[in-house]
Structures are given as C-alpha cells and as structure tokens.
Write a structure and sequence with these properties.
Length: 186
C-alpha cells in the first residue's frame, strides 16, 4: 500500500458516515469530485479535508474536498446482498477446500441436483479445480468439507474482512479515518 502525498488520479474524496467511519472499506467509499461538489452545494456533506487543487466558476472558488462526512447517518446494519463479490469477501477470496485464491467459483455445498439452494447457507468460494473434483457429490461422498460452514455474514463482518484488502493507493488526508490491520500499516 502506497500513501500518496499528491492527489490521486481523478481527485476522489473519501466519504465518511456521520460517525466519521467510511461508508465502506472494500470497495473503499470514494466519490468523484463532481459528485462531492454537488453534495456540498446540496448541503448533504461537511468538508473535513481538502486537496490543494482549486475549482473556479465566474462567481465561486473552493478547494476540492479530499474527505467529506455525511450530515445524515446511514445505518450500516442492513443485511448484505448475496452477490459474488460479497461471497468471495466473506470467504476471504480463498477456496474453502484447498485455500487457493486463483480462479474462484461458486460451489453449492449441497448440489443443486440434490435440492441445494443458491443461498448464503449453501454456497462457498471454491477454486475451479476443487469445484470440478467435488462435482455433484455431497461433501461426505467427495470427502471435501468446507473450511468454514457457509452462513449469512453481517455487514460488520464484511467490513472487517474488507479492511484486510486495502487499495494500492491512499491519499495522506484519508489515513486518520481508515483502520487497516496492523501488519498493513507498516
């Protein structure tokens, strides 16, 4: 992870909830500068930090925001959507059979041909090799059991997992609001 002293490409702003925590860690909650300026004018955000870059109009001038916080708190405890990305995030982008992280697919623990459903409680991340080996068999028949039983994650759990995967580039003005695992901060 590289901490930039110059502005990142496109002048994005880190968006914080009203409690000064990022709306999302993975992907990191960033808005483009145009959306941030619009939110400032609509009085939906407070500017917390700015870049040195100025924007101008015939009657107005302001520094581009680098960090903003929402004025209204957005609850973060709604159940996460069942998506490919969220499932891989729940399983740490790791095959739940062999721990590899390449070529990930969905695996129905109880195969669809045996009545298994496509749900949090029946899907795990699996590399294509393990998925092919397991095929349409039950875990006991294939002697392949997931490392962690599949279950619906909480939003807080997904956010915690997302903090393990910081972006490659972060602006210095964002660092006080981001909480990465200690081994990544060095």
């Amino acid at each position: 992870m590289e901490v930039l002293r110059h502005s990142p490409h496109g002048w994005p702003a880190l968006v914080l909830n009203a409690d000064f925590r990022p709306l999302s860690y993975y992907p990191l909650s960033l808005w483009g500068w145009q959306d941030v300026i619009k939110a400032v004018f609509l009085d939906r955000v407070d500017v917390v930090s700015t870049y040195d870059q100025m924007i101008h109009s015939p009657s107005f001038e302001m520094r581009l925001p680098s960090v903003v916080s929402l004025k209204q708190y957005v609850p973060q405890d709604r159940p996460p959507a069942f998506t490919r990305f969220n499932l891989f995030l729940r399983d740490d982008f790791t095959c739940q059979y062999c721990r590899r992280s390449e070529d990930l697919t969905f695996d129905h623990v109880i195969p669809r041909s045996r009545g298994g459903r496509t749900s949090w409680e029946n899907i795990v991340a699996a590399c294509s090799r393990c998925n092919l080996i397991k095929g349409g068999r039950m875990p006991a028949e294939a002697n392949m059991h997931p490392l962690h039983p599949p279950r619906r994650p909480s939003s807080h759990e997904l956010q915690a997992h997302g903090r393990r995967f910081p972006p490659n580039h972060l602006h210095a003005s964002w660092m006080d609001y981001l909480y990465w695992d200690s081994e990544l901060e060095a």
